[in-house]
Design goal:
Layout lengths: L5 H58 L4 H21 L16 H53 L10 H9 L9 E8 L10 E7 L4 E9 L3 H21 L3 H15 L7 E9 L4 E7 L4 E5 L2 E5 L17 E4 L5 E5 L1 H4 L11 H11 L3 H15 L7 E8 L1 H19 L1
Helix pairs in contact: 1-2, 1-3, 1-6, 5-6, 8-9
Length: 420
């Protein structure tokens, strides 16, 4: 394959670096703008709560003359409200007043006046943050538009090399779409196909990743849309989940936080993501997973095949949704098979869908190493259907600690023979 001229290679590299930097900066702006407005809203809510509990405590103390234990309970609520106000305050003027119980009527009047001032300050802060958030979102959207423009520029510059395998979409795959990497104690297999002729970028994406070689994260996602728009979303998914994985290892929590990021970042309000996310303990085989409306995944234990159902709604259709985390334990040779709907919704010549039950029957028959399982699924789909009509991703995660140990022993033996 002929290489690109040095000048074109340099400019292309600059464009890719600029594209990546713009994407991360736009994602940062979208996410933290939402965090700021959330903090302003929380501050206002805490001030209102303090006003309510202050009035309740005053009524209980002077009008109802409640017992000491009852008064202490209300006093603790008010103290908690004031503490939360202090945590959310951004300036000295937003800090809560001091209040000592038991108090006089005059003390309550002073507290009411100061809380009213804080309410006004909170309203100003919320309005100012809302305006800044709007400007930030506009800037973020402009950056995403620049990203799309950079994609177009790259496409134009590399058009002459498309026939030689150096197309823009291949560069985007190397920059954004995960390559399968060796993970200790895991045997991995994958297939990623695009139904769009002349393009290797579709709406399906997968990733397997670890920071510490003790716990690995893996996911399979199906993004609405295709082409450049889908490529941007797959990049957002990959790097957002990797970042969230560094902060929290619970899949349900990661999915909830990713859903919040996606709701703030997606340019198309009608876009959505169907996603299966899991973590696996690389020592004892414990798998924890959460599924955002995903096609059922499968757990293969010998010839026993069970389906792993969704644990929450599709990302992008139910803001504020929670996702349950489920747990299972893999033994040596057991595998998880996750796919997008390009597998279960593939049709035969009569138009009949394959469906998840048929996939379960296939998996009970296939077995073997992870990549052989993934390839066998695709071969059967090709035999059953006249062609691949939808984007398709298959990821097989097989727990094989002895395989990793054997590979290390073989490498050590080769090094010893080389030294000898």
């Amino acid at each position: 394959m002929p290489a690109l001229p040095p000048g074109r290679t340099l400019l292309t590299t600059v464009l890719v670096v600029g594209l990546t930097a713009a994407f991360f900066f736009a994602t940062y702006l979208s996410y933290w703008a939402g965090v700021d407005i959330s903090s302003a809203f929380t501050y206002q809510s805490d001030v209102v709560a303090a006003q309510r509990d202050s009035e309740l405590l005053e009524v209980e103390q002077f009008d109802r003359r409640s017992s000491e234990p009852m008064l202490r309970a209300y006093e603790k609520l008010l103290a908690s409200d004031l503490d939360r106000i202090g945590l959310e305050a951004e300036s000295k003027s937003e800090r809560p007043p001091r209040f000592t119980f038991p108090a006089t009527r005059n003390d309550y009047e002073m507290l009411t006046t100061k809380l009213a001032n804080l309410e006004n300050a909170g309203r100003v802060r919320f309005e100012q943050t809302s305006r800044e958030n709007t400007h930030t979102r506009d800037l973020s959207n402009a950056l995403f538009a620049i990203i799309a423009l950079l994609f177009a520029v790259l496409s134009s510059r590399l058009r002459s090399a498309v026939e030689e395998g150096r197309s823009l979409v291949e560069r985007l795959q190397r920059a954004f779409i995960s390559k399968r990497r060796a993970i200790p104690n895991l045997d991995l297999g994958s297939v990623l196909l695009s139904a769009t002729r002349g393009s290797n970028v579709g709406g399906d994406v997968y990733d397997v990743f670890t920071y510490d070689n003790r716990t690995a994260m893996f996911f399979v996602a199906d993004v609405s849309g295709k082409g450049i728009e889908a490529a941007v979303d797959t990049a957002l998914i990959k790097y957002s989940l990797r970042t969230l994985f560094s902060l929290d290892r619970d899949p349900g929590t990661m999915l909830r936080r990713f859903s919040e990021i996606y709701d703030r970042s997606a340019e198309n309000l009608e876009s959505f993501v169907v996603l299966f996310l899991g973590t696996v303990d690389l020592v004892d085989g414990t798998v924890r997973y959460a599924s955002a409306g995903h096609e059922p995944a499968w757990c293969v234990m010998g010839q026993d095949v069970s389906r792993l159902m969704p644990t929450g709604p599709i990302v992008g259709v139910a803001p504020g949704a929670n996702y349950a985390t489920q747990t299972l334990r893999l033994r040596f040779g057991d595998a998880l098979v996750i796919s997008t709907d390009g597998v279960t919704e593939s049709r035969d010549d009569r138009g009949a869908l394959l469906g998840p039950d048929a996939v379960s029957e296939w998996l009970a028959e296939i077995g073997g190493e992870a990549q052989k399982m993934a390839d066998a699924i695709v071969r059967r789909i090709r035999r059953r259907s006249s062609g691949i009509t939808d984007d398709l991703a298959v990821l097989v995660v097989r727990f094989a600690p002895a395989r990793a140990a054997a590979a290390r022993s073989a490498d050590a033996a080769r090094r010893r023979r080389t030294l000898a």
